[in-house]
Design brief:
By secondary structure, the chain is mainly α. Helices cover 74% and strands 0% of the residues. The chain starts with 9 loop residues before the first helix and ends in an 8-residue tail after the last helix.
C-alpha cells in the first residue's frame, strides 16, 4: 500500500484488484462445485479468467473427453460414450459438439447390434448410409 501513497486513484485500483480477486474466487468455487456452465459464463463476462490455469485445465479436460468419446464409440463401448457425453454437455463450449456426437451414438449402437447378430446385409446398408462406419468393418 505504501507504493500507492500519494496516488489519488489508489482507492479505485484497490477496488478493482479486490473485485478481480472475488471474481477469481467465485470462478474457482464454481469449478469445485462442478457448475461448469456458471464457470464458463463468468469467463465470458470476465475475459481475464480465461488466462487462469484452471480454465485451461478445464478446457483441456473437455478436449480429452471429446477424444475419449470417439475412442469409446469405435471400440463399441456405447455406455461409456454416453456417460462422457453427459459430462461434456455441462461445459458450454463443448455442448454443441457433444450433442452432435450424441446423435451419432444411436447409429453406432445399431451398427454394433447388427455386428453382434452378424447381420451382414444391414451392416453393409449402414456402412453405405454412414461412411464413417467403414473403419469399424
Amino acid at each position: 500500500m505504501s507504493a500507492y501513497r500519494g496516488v489519488s486513484s489508489k482507492t479505485e485500483i484497490i477496488k478493482q484488484i479486490v473485485a478481480e480477486r472475488e471474481t477469481i474466487n467465485l470462478f474457482l468455487k464454481k469449478i469445485a462445485a462442478k457448475d461448469f456452465k456458471a464457470a464458463f459464463e463468468l469467463a465470458n463476462i470476465h475475459p481475464f479468467l480465461k488466462e487462469l490455469k484452471e480454465y485451461r485445465t478445464l478446457k483441456d479436460v473437455g478436449e480429452k473427453g471429446m477424444q475419449k468419446i470417439k475412442e469409446f464409440l469405435e471400440s463399441g463401448d456405447i455406455q461409456k460414450a454416453k456417460d462422457t457425453i453427459s459430462l461434456l454437455k455441462a461445459i458450454p463450449i463443448f455442448r454443441h459438439d457433444a450433442e452432435t456426437i450424441e446423435k451419432r451414438v444411436i447409429i453406432y449402437q445399431k451398427f454394433f447390434d447388427y455386428k453382434k447378430t452378424n447381420d451382414e446385409t444391414k451392416i453393409k446398408i449402414f456402412v453405405k448410409k454412414y461412411p464413417f462406419l467403414e473403419q469399424l468393418v
